Amino acid sequence: MLYEGLTQNVMAGEKHLRAQEWEPAHDALVRSRRIVTYLLNSLREEGGDITKQLRGLYGFCFENIGRANLEKNPEVLAGVLDVINELSGAWRDLAAQNSELQEAVPVGADEESI
Length: 114
Description:
Layout: H1 2-18, H2 22-42, H3 49-71, H4 77-104
Helix pairs in contact: 1-2, 1-4, 2-3, 3-4
């Protein structure tokens, strides 16, 4: 899942910033921004309000990852990790609900009969 990779990279960047290991911090944060860029580019305009909300959250993450990298400030990443964890949890819950729904569908049912 992209959120897991994003979390790992942001956490690695934070760890390296705290240790003043600038090059590995930079590399991890650049990878983080690439993942956020991919997430931003995957949003569809016809998504309505959810697309606008996700675009705002992803934009927040993108900006603050860049800010942490430029300022060498690991504290900036706390808000980013909060957003990622919240979104990741929401997607996991949605996937679990979808899985439960799929299990409740009678065998042989098709989309029109549901």
